[in-house]
Amino acid sequence: MLDDEPRQRLRISRAFTSMLVYVVCLGLAEYALAHDMADPVATRLLQGGMIVWMVVVYTTLRSGLNLRFRDPSLTFLQVMAAGAWITAAYIVFTPVRGSLLMLLALTLVFSIFNLDRTGRRIYNGCVVVGTGLTMFTLSTLRPDDYPFQVEWVHFVLTAVVLAVMGQLSEQLLAIRARLRTQRNELEAALSRIQELATRDVLTGLPNRRYATDLFAQLARGAERNGSPLSVCLIDLDHFKRVNDNYGHKAGDIVLQRFADTATGALRESDVLARWGGEEFLVLLPDTPVKKADQSMARVRAALAQTRLVTADAAAVTFSAGLAQFRPGESIEHAVERADFALYRAKSDGRNRCVISD
To answer: Which residue in 22, 23, 187, 315 is a FRET match for 324, CA 20 to 30 A apart?
Structure first.
């Protein structure tokens, strides 16, 4: 009966709920026939029309044809049709016609969260005008069955109830809009908090804490798949001179531009993180240490073509220590080996990459 797709299933279930209005009308029709309160031919035609309409709505939703409409729920179409059927029932079931008027408001309740303001106003306007004309015509043509005094009361009650329901709908939609706005603001705040917790504010790279978590994830994957994983520690050479000669603002620019340059030279699968100060950590999944050394050479070549401070300043270089993760090894030990290799690179004259034993 229901669709496998969640949204379609929800639309069909809501349509079934709204069809309770028709079920009430069908039951009322049987009651009216049993007590000779309605014309049999008109009643059967009305019942048949309602049943056909329910089948059409269900078939449209179940087949997916509704997805071609701007409103896949067919809310506006369903409430307008319900108003028309209830008005028709009002004509057929003369003795109990007043009980049908509450169904007009009930129809609006079913669509309160799916019908927009324009659609709701059109529905209210059409119902008020349609029922008003119907009541006026019936009281004119059949005054004995439809006294004007009674029809006037019915019309006033219908107009007032729909107006009140419209105001309640406006208030509920306003509350819903505020809740949606608050939810979006909360999601944005949570996203910002998460970003601040995992990203370095200056460079936008993953911070040390987040890089450690990523390293642990990649290490587990490497052990599980038997794939190589290399880790590299990078330290910008003589970075203190940049701060001393050009100021700390220039030093921040160097760090930002280095991050951009290195990211562009690395693969998308590689992870570049700020480890602290002028130190950076690089994780190279599915990469043996020799190939990782070639990646660092690409970064060095890209860096050599970029002046990170001023045009007349010397190019910024870096020293690096490389280590290949060993199965069963802790990530702390792997980073320690890369750090020791970095120390050797500095001792050997900087601007080079040393592979850990």
So the answer is: 315
- The token pair at 322 is 């490389």
The answer to whether the beta carbons of residues 169 and 112 sit under 8 Å apart is yes
316: DSSP letter: P
Q: Which long-range contacts (CB under 8 A, 24 or more apart) does 247-256 make?
A: 250/309, 252/202, 253/308, 253/309, 254/308, 254/309, 254/316, 255/202, 255/203, 256/202, 256/203
352 DSSP 8-state letter: S
For residue 110, with 0-12 CB atoms within 10 Å meaning exposed, 13-18 middle and 19 or more buried, which class applies?
buried
Helices vs strands, H then E, count in the chain: 12, 5
pTM (two decimals): 0.54
169 close to 108: Cβ distance less than 8 angstroms? yes
pLDDT digits (tens, 9 = 90+) for 167-182: 888 888 888 889 888 9
**Structure tokens of 345?**
């690179």
Closest among 103, 95, 222 to 146, alpha carbons compared: 95
State the catalytic residues: 278
Length of the chain: 357
Structure tokens at 236: 């910008």
User: What are the b/e assignments for 195-209, b being 16+ CB within 10 Å?
Assistant: eeebbbeebebbbee
pLDDT digits (tens, 9 = 90+) for 55-102: 999 999 888 898 888 888 888 888 888 888 888 888 888 887 887 787
Which token pair is 172? Answer: 């509920």
H/E element holding 174?
Answer: helix 148-198
pLDDT bracket for residue 241 (50, 70, 90): confident
Q: How far is the C-alpha of 312 from the C-alpha of 222, rounded, in Å?
A: 45
Task: Give strand pairing partners of 355.
Answer: 322
Q: Scanning the structure block, which residue is given the tokens 């900087």?
A: 350
Identify whether the C-beta of residue 315 lies closer than 8 Å to the C-beta of residue 287: no
Beta bridge partners of 320: 234, 353
